[in-house]
């Protein structure tokens, strides 16, 4: 669906996946006016299809659009478009244990601009594709490289919103780390290179003496929806939870660390390498705090437990 200078979203329709025609001078191609979201539809054990907190993705898009000077669809319009896309692709939602249907809402400036200014037209679209489980046999440990050369976000920048622009600067760091045998990259603050921010596509938590801490999702860190769930769950399970600056030395000394995100759900950190020093987190899988959260979320997403929080939406 499209929005032009009148600020109104005009009704869109379902179309087969195909090419998108945009002007070479489109705002998104020249000045990066683009935001996306990522969510998954899961098949339940009794054959239903469930979305997980889609209204949270809608709210995050609205928040990001304000920073990127773009109009955004309302929560209802966003959720309705996501539901329609899942409904139209229901046969592609894989059975339990075989993955999920990844849904990608995208908001881009498609109007022509030459000088740096707002695009006169915006397009909101949703596409979907089946994906396998991130880890084939339950959550596997992630091996992180703490990045010491490249930064993901700067103060006053766009690190805290899900704009397409944030993913270009991390590609080089990510590809280099993968070549070196790491699973992913953990970014530190760009100023002091001392405080944890996040991993390329997930948030990070540390556990020490039953206290769970995670960097504040302000400014540079994306407020992950899985992160938000874990903060709520941890509190309800009686853990002390802290959102604050987390020094990289605290991570190296933690009892446990884990990452959260739509793709990884909740995955334990197996090792962290920082300036040549490698710390292994080898505590037994069943005792991990992260395994409690992983089970809780996946049971809910697959419909194996009753949803008392209203976090799932049936399609
Ligand atoms: N940080 C970044 C940079 C991400 O791309 C993602 C994935 N959306 C996350 C964190 C985790 O967010 P969520 O739990 O909403 O998937």
TrEMBL record:
Its cofactor is pyridoxal 5'-phosphate. The keyword Cell inner membrane does not apply. The modification N6-(pyridoxal phosphate)lysine is found at residue 162. GO terms for biological process: amino acid biosynthetic process; branched-chain amino acid biosynthetic process. Keywords: Amino-acid biosynthesis, Aminotransferase, Branched-chain amino acid biosynthesis, Pyridoxal phosphate, Transferase. It catalyses: L-valine + 2-oxoglutarate = 3-methyl-2-oxobutanoate + L-glutamate; L-isoleucine + 2-oxoglutarate = (S)-3-methyl-2-oxopentanoate + L-glutamate; L-leucine + 2-oxoglutarate = 4-methyl-2-oxopentanoate + L-glutamate. Its EC number is 2.6.1.42. GO terms for molecular function: branched-chain-amino-acid transaminase activity. The keyword Amino-acid biosynthesis applies. It comes from the Eukaryota. GO terms for cellular component: cytoplasm. Belongs to the class-IV pyridoxal-phosphate-dependent aminotransferase family. This is Branched-chain-amino-acid aminotransferase. It comes from Adiantum capillus-veneris (Maidenhair fern). The chain holds residues 91 to 405 of 405 of the full protein.
């Amino acid at each position: 669906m499209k929005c032009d200078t009148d600020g109104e979203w005009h009704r869109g329709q379902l179309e087969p996946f195909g090419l998108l025609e945009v002007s070479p001078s489109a705002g998104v191609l020249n000045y990066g006016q683009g935001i996306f979201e990522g969510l998954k539809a899961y098949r339940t054990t009794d054959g239903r299809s469930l979305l997980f907190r889609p209204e949270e993705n809608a709210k995050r898009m609205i928040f990001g659009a304000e920073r990127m000077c773009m109009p955004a669809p309302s929560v209802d319009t966003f959720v309705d478009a996501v539901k329609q896309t899942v409904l139209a692709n229901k046969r592609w939602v894989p059975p339990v244990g075989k993955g999920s249907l990844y849904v990608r809402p995208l908001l881009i400036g498609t109007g022509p601009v030459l000088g740096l200014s707002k695009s006169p037209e915006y397009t909101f679209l949703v596409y979907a594709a089946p994906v396998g489980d991130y880890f084939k046999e339950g959550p596997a440990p992630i091996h992180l490289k703490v990045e010491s050369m490249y930064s993901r976000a700067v103060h006053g920048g766009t690190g805290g919103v899900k704009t397409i622009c944030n993913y270009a600067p991390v590609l080089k760091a990510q590809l280099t780390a993968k070549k070196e045998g790491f699973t992913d990259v953990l970014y530190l603050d760009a100023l002091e290179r001392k405080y944890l921010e996040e991993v390329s596509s997930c948030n990070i938590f540390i556990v020490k003496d039953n206290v769970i801490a995670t960097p504040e999702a302000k400014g540079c860190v994306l407020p992950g929806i899985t992160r938000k769930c874990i903060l709520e769950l941890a509190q309800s399970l009686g853990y002390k939870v802290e959102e604050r600056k987390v020094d990289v030395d605290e991570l190296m000394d933690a009892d446990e660390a884990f990452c959260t995100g739509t793709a990884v759900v909740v995955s334990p950190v197996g090792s962290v390498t920082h300036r040549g020093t490698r710390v292994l987190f080898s505590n037994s899988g069943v005792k991990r705090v992260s395994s409690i959260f992983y089970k809780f979320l996946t049971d809910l997403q697959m419909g194996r437990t009753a949803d008392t929080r209203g976090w799932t939406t049936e399609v």
